[in-house]
Amino acid sequence: MNVKLFEPLEIKKMTLKNRIVMSPMCMYSCESKDGTVNDWHVIHYTSRAIGGVGLVILEATAVEPRGRISDRDLGIWSDDQLPGLKRLVDLNHRYGSKMGIQLAHAGRKAELESPSLGPSPIRFDEQYQVPKEMGHEEICQVVTDFRSGARRAKEAGFDVIEIHAAHGYLLHEFLSPLSNQRNDSYGGTDDNRFRLLSEVIEAVKAEWDGPLFVRVSASDYREGGLTAQKLAEYAKKMKTLGVDLIDTSSGGNVDVPIDVFPGYQVSFAEKIKHESDIMTGAVGLISEPVHAEEILQNGRADLIFLGRELLRDPYWPRRAAVKLGTRIEVPEPYRRGWRFK
After folding, report:
1. What's the CA gap between 36 and 22, in Å, rounded?
2. Which residues lie across from 216 on neighbouring strands?
3. How far is the CA of 287 from the CAs of 261, 273, 275, 279, in angstroms?
4. What is the fold of 19-334?
5. Who's near 188: CB < 8 A, 6+ residues apart?
6. What does the DSSP assignment read for 1-20?
7. How high does pLDDT run on average in the chain?
């Protein structure tokens, strides 16, 4: 039986060498408030490329200063940020990985001194600000900011753009009835709540013709919130707009306990994949190579996104290859440390 985890995958004109993706995870490690790459980011991301990850996706990168989760987040709102981003891309390419970037706006979950923004004046919880309800001019500016971010991502040489519409950040806030209680053209109905995400996708596509992912939260885990069925319907619309893959996560928009276990979100990826006829990525406490392989072999998803596991072990792909009994390329200086069957 072929080992699916290490089969290439072609998306548009890009070919990933394997199905292993480093999930975007904020590092909160900028040394100043200008959102620029530093040595930490270079070491952190490039080590996963050396470790054998097929696609490394940069953390949530803010399209405007108010869109940062914290003031130590990376940004892509200025051309001054391009040299560091280009350096990251070039290094990851040198060591065999494709490089993606997650374009993001934190919305009401921004933890900054400046006022936060949201679809409605409803805060996430008591520790957060009550966000300013966005007017149409501010909404249009966010769309423009995503377009500018896409232009810079292309200039920096990224292979993939992922739009962050999950985990309670701005685009998720507009999608969910729990956080969007507007009654204008951006709220009140499913189509209206989808409007901002659709406009962002179209704006990004105006600058970008490469692979396009969208990260979604397939469940709000609360009555009246988003469900996997609703996200499957939205995924069909996203496909018609030119989205190639849905990175399927969950939660984050309301403070609610979630029953987590290995693979607890895989069923969401499976449902969206088969009901929407679109590629999906599975994420969520996937740590064992055999588990990752089962997901792919059974057609439940197309890519495996690893988060915490790649924080613990940058060389997880090497270990997975040994466990699954297959051979992969290892950098010459490391070959004495790896024995494949």
Report:
1. 20
2. 165, 248
3. 11, 22, 26, 21
4. TIM Barrel (3.20.20)
5. 182
6. ---GGGS-EEETTEEESSSE
7. 96
- d(CA 257, CA 255) in angstroms, rounded, equals 7
Pairing status of strand 212-217 against strand 245-249? parallel
Taking CA 162 as the corner, what is the angle to CA 247 and CA 73, rounded to the nearest 5 degrees? 110
- Is 131 in contact with 115 (CB distance < 8 Å)? yes
- Six token digits for residue 163: 């739009």
CA dihedral sign, ordered 12, 78, 129, 174: negative
What pLDDT does 51 receive?
95
Per-residue pLDDT tens over the stretch 278-296: 999 999 999 999 999 999 9
Query: What DSSP assignment string belongs to 93-151?
Result: HHTT-EEEEEEE--GGG--SSSPPEESSS--SSTTSPPPEEPPHHHHHHHHHHHHHHHH
Is 332 a residue whose pLDDT tops 70?
yes
Task: Write the burial class of residue 326 (CB in 10 Å: 0-12 exposed, 13-18 middle, 19+ buried).
Answer: middle
- Residue 124 tokens read as 């996430």
| CA pair distance 292, 280, nearest whole angstrom | 14
DSSP per-residue codes, 177-220: TTT----STTSSSHHHHHHHHHHHHHHHHHH--S-EEEEEES--
The model scores a pTM over 0.85: yes
Answer whether 102's CB lies under 8 Å from 164's CB: yes
Q: Report how far residue 63's alpha carbon sits from residue 77's, in angstroms, rounded to the nearest whole number.
A: 5
Count of other CB atoms within 10 angstroms of residue 42: 15
